[in-house]
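Dear colleagues,

For the upcoming journal club I promised to circulate an example of a predicted protein-ligand complex. I picked one with pyridoxal-5'-phosphate because it came up in last month's discussion. The inputs are reproduced below in full, followed by the predicted structure.
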Amino acid sequence: MSTGHAYIDLPRLDLRRFTSPVQFLPRMSEGLGVEVWAKRDDLGSVGLAGNKVRKLEMELAHAQAQGATHIVTEGSRHSNATRAAAAAAAAIGMKCSLVLCHDEPKEPVGNLLLDALFGADLHLVGDISWVELAEVTAEIVRELEAAGERVHRLPIGSATGRGATSFARAYIEADEQIRAQGATFTTIVHASSAGSTHAGLVLGRALRQHSTRILGVVVADHVYDDVPGSYLRLANEAADLIAPTVRIEASDLELTEDYLGEGYGKPAAGVMEAIDLMARLEGIVVDPVYTAKAVAAVIDMARKGTVEGPVLFWHTGGYHAMFDPSYTAEVWSALPRLRRIQL
Ligand SMILES: *Cc1c(COP(=O)(O)O)cnc(C)c1O
């Protein structure tokens, strides 16, 4: 067993109330010829789970300690981060305002339905860029503060150094879980957008002094002007909080845009096949916006022989997108073709 670095445990709210399992995927492994496991962060007890809940456990513990009354965050109307924030705010009795960069759709389903269901105030601000969205959100924060609210603002994707510390802890959790099953992982593959998942996992690896390959499959373009720089900043802000002697270097990060396809929420080669195989072989749902792109990477790399197993696919959640009509129709129409694909 590696001893690793000691790290500081920050205050955390327990929003999940259980440890998500690490499970072997026997039929995917057999089909791909590479051992594949999954960390099931798609399961949980608040807001239909997903990776944002871990970050919120850290962020909201901090917000509460600071006396915040109101959570404000922004994203797309498909955003899992906004939906998780709305649910977590409901669970702890805080107000929540969400700023979403889409016009009100004819059918408010998927995450938008959930955002409203969890009682958040919704600001649908039209089809604007991420940068403009941040500006509009800042204005809404000013208005709330002027009205006497104590606002805790979460950036897009809840991407903060404090949030990222939850994934350093999660790395250690998953490592212990797989070892308890007599196995180990050589590679972790996960969907990546605002970066605190990747930053945190990389920090967790440093704490354990492991050489695991951690591949972030980029699913969103133009989230930051400088994507690697922003990821690195998140990783080192997280390190400052829990392990000040540890430094993360740019070379510790590994991101690929090979599976981004046409962009965030847009089609990419391999996505429908990933959804189909995970569903048919394992009974697990992956979504077209995030996790299917990560699974598409696993499948593609397994076929090309460019990934070393055992692979841990980190299931970051997000299957609610599947219930949004734009994607439902797309997946449905892809099925007849997919049913003829043999592994
Ligand atoms: C937000 C999200 C990601 C990406 O996480 P980041 O930490 O923002 O990079 C991956 N998968 C799902 C399902 C998500 O909702």
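Two points we might discuss: The chain has two domains: 22-49+160-338, 51-158. The beta strands are 22-24, 36-40, 70-75, 95-100, 121-124, 151-154, 187-192, 213-218, 255-256, 311-315.

See you all on Thursday,
B. R.
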